[in-house]
Amino acid sequence: MRSVQEPTIRDVARAAGVSYQTVSRVINGNERVAEATRRRVQTAIGELGYRPNRAARELAGKAVRSLTVLTSDTSLYGNATALRGIEEAARTAGFAVSISVLDRHAAPDAEELRARLVRPGEPMIVIAFDAAGARALELLPADVPVTALVERPPGDDPDPRHVWLDDRLAATRATRHLLGLGHRTVHCLALPSSTARTAQRTEGWLDALREAGVDAPAPVEGGWTPRSGHLAARTLLDRHPDATAVLCGNDDLALGMLRAAREAGRRVPDELSVVGFDDTPASAYLAPALTTVRLDFEGLGRTSFGLLHRLLDPSAPGQEPCAEPELIVRESSGPGGTGSG
Amino acid sequence: MRSVQEPTIRDVARAAGVSYQTVSRVINGNERVAEATRRRVQTAIGELGYRPNRAARELAGKAVRSLTVLTSDTSLYGNATALRGIEEAARTAGFAVSISVLDRHAAPDAEELRARLVRPGEPMIVIAFDAAGARALELLPADVPVTALVERPPGDDPDPRHVWLDDRLAATRATRHLLGLGHRTVHCLALPSSTARTAQRTEGWLDALREAGVDAPAPVEGGWTPRSGHLAARTLLDRHPDATAVLCGNDDLALGMLRAAREAGRRVPDELSVVGFDDTPASAYLAPALTTVRLDFEGLGRTSFGLLHRLLDPSAPGQEPCAEPELIVRESSGPGGTGSG
DNA sequence: GACTCTTGTGTGAACGGTCACATCAGCGCA
DNA sequence: TGCGCTGATGTGACCGTTCACACAAGAGTC
Questions:
Q1: Rounded CA gap, B165 and B175, in Å?
Q2: A255 CB within 8 Å of a chain B CB
Q3: Were both Cys, which of A49, B60, B118, B274 would link to B332 (CB 3.0–4.6 Å)?
């Protein structure tokens, strides 16, 4: 296939007048090589354009630096941004990143998942914000080194290989913001949970309502897209024509909510306050600009990689922590009237 | 690291009572194996849970089925959607997909690029809608099998390894739509071009104006995000307070345009028509819902993979073609007054 | 019945690295 | 002078697979 043979370690050795093993030592940063020899070898490497053969290295038992990211739909903001964070951190550390995309709607089975591993024992990072990811995480063989970005901290059985953002607290703060504006209660357009339990963001919303001594209306569940948000929002407005404030599971749902409100003749924020989640690049430019919670998905991706890296090599450097969730108040939330709540 | 050794081809051979070579034949679908033997081997494979070792296979000279996607920012709609298409098609064909993310703002250099290749000769797909991607494509060593998703067909020197969507015609149609609504002229909020030449979408816009015998106003160049669209839109409205129709390079720019229009007190579509490009999932839910052009990025991704596959193996199956660009008329475009143009 | 030809199977040598061990020179020290 | 130690380098085996080739057994041909 290739016309010119790639140079091997033995070609370099010949060019530098040393044995192939010495070349191997130079490549792997072994101490025991005389400075002059090292330089000669490095010159030869440069001149020949030598690069170590990955396959040979792996076959010979050297731990190879690669990982696979398992994620659903890469066009969702959270997934895409986390992926970017992982890729950047991984590349900086010299890891090759493979990717395997799950169908968001179909539950993966163990056999299929096993087949997705590039090789047995390939390290993985699972983006498990949704049910497909969470299920994949459960099904992964036990001998695979893995870390995961999860929606919720596992309450009873904390797993040190999981990382997450404090969605719950963030949702509480966003809800408090709305209550503080004078709304009698806050409705919830919820994201599907990744587990059988209530989504974290929904929990946080409940926390704030409980704390304020307000009865929580039943949340309405949407999907992940503006389309599903729009449908769910219609249901919500139908069921609760007197709603004055809605917390949405993400910015895309909020976008659907804004449209449904417009269609129902409810002005935002005058008659209805809407708060989103994620702070997508679009949110500041919507009409009205969306009040939302900024989440550091990129940082979370970096963190998940750092964790995996230390799992594989305990001497790997630590990671700077991700940014705290931050409420960004824009135009879509306003004072709640003193009227019906 | 792993407690249990993975079974090798020799383990399978022993279990089936044949030589390792026969096992290799079965794995690779060689004709010359007796039916009974084949079955025995396959049973052994199943029982032992044997999977071929990728590295050994590659080292022994077997073409290994993997590819690397080179792309900038994975959170942009076009990139993310194309990536999804590539990944899906590749996985179906048994390829492992690696990913390498370029900085959209920094030009890659040849040395760095070479280092990104998982191995010399690794097949690649470059998503080259922007300048970073286009530059990377140029710098790739000649011996790498590569296909690319490009912004524009290379006019003079058509490269059969490139695929693209007919942005130009699509832009012409969108512009005709606006002219057909009675607008005297159409302004352009342009995407940065991937090359030194004018962006395809901008060309298409020019085509339509020329065809209608209308003088083309100078296009205003934005970036890729709502933020950059907003900035550029302000400039555009400043320079051309009498504009009644604007074609935007993508939906995110259009979003920025919508906001700038609102801030300038220009009602859309009554006083100003805005048309986007891409049909992102959000566009139908914006206020007003965006008239835009639907582009089949996912199909383009699949096509680019099919092309690469056939480059590597001429007997690989053909691909179904991508969908034609389609103008989706929604609320953001309306009749142009007979007043100032 | 000796000859090809086909079919099914086995053997040895790569592929390009790493690892464990062997070797060798130079040094300090009794 | 001879011993052990240390630092620098070389040698052989091996990782799990494929490839090229050798070989045995049976069928078809003259």
A1: 17
A2: yes
A3: B274
